[in-house]
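Record type: ASSEMBLY
Status: queued
Input:
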Amino acid sequence: MATPNPFPAGISKEQAFSMAQTEMEYRVELFNKLAQTCFSKCVDKRYKEAELNMGDNSCIDRCVSKYWQVNGMVGQLLSAGKPPM
Amino acid sequence: MFNDSSAEPAAGSSGSNENVTKIEPIRMPTIEEMRAQEVWNNCAVKSVASGVMGGGLGLMMGLFMGALDNPIMHDTMTGRQQFVYTAKQMGQRSWSSCKTFAVMGLVYSAAECIVEKARAKHDIINTAVAGCVTGGTMSARGGPKAACMGCVGFATFSVLIEKFFDRHT
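Status: finished
Output:
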């Protein structure tokens, strides 16, 4: 969804604000879920040192990339297709 | 990063001048900090640094061993000649040892870095594979059988050393 210009025609200030709030909540939820998923997949639970290993780093890179791609694809499908549920 | 309420405001981060802000928001690392960390994630930089450290270690060991090994011959040379001769032997010995250890460190570090990046996991298998590659390349001159023995031997050695250093878990 393209970022809207400030106050396009027909949208009041309250509507723009609530849209921005919804978008912000969505983004925060996305980030939290992404961090939680990739952390539980990639980082070994027996902590041996404070730093992230190189293996952890590349695992996190791949996990975030996959998550973002799938998120984009699902968003496109949901917005374009609107399948009858 | 968790900040308790008695943390001092960092330079330039929170910004309000009137009241002293005690609680700071979570600070994401800056681009400079991220770049500084990314330098050590690079396989080339890491392996060159390991090679240099291995070279230093080899120099020390070669000097020590070279000093121990040379017999002192009293009857054929004067004191000063003996000293020069011993110094040359020590220098040769330590230089060859330095090269050996530098190559060993470089190959081991490069192999471990590449394997760990490819597998995306931090395991003991990485050290075993890296040890095998290092042992194999170092004994490759003796033929395939010597390479196999070197591979197995060095892999076992590096796994044992890694387990020794990880004993506190």
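Annotation: Chain A touches chain B at residues 42, 44, 46, 48, 53-59, 62 (CB under 8 Å).
Annotation: Residues 13-42 of chain A form the longest helix (30 residues).
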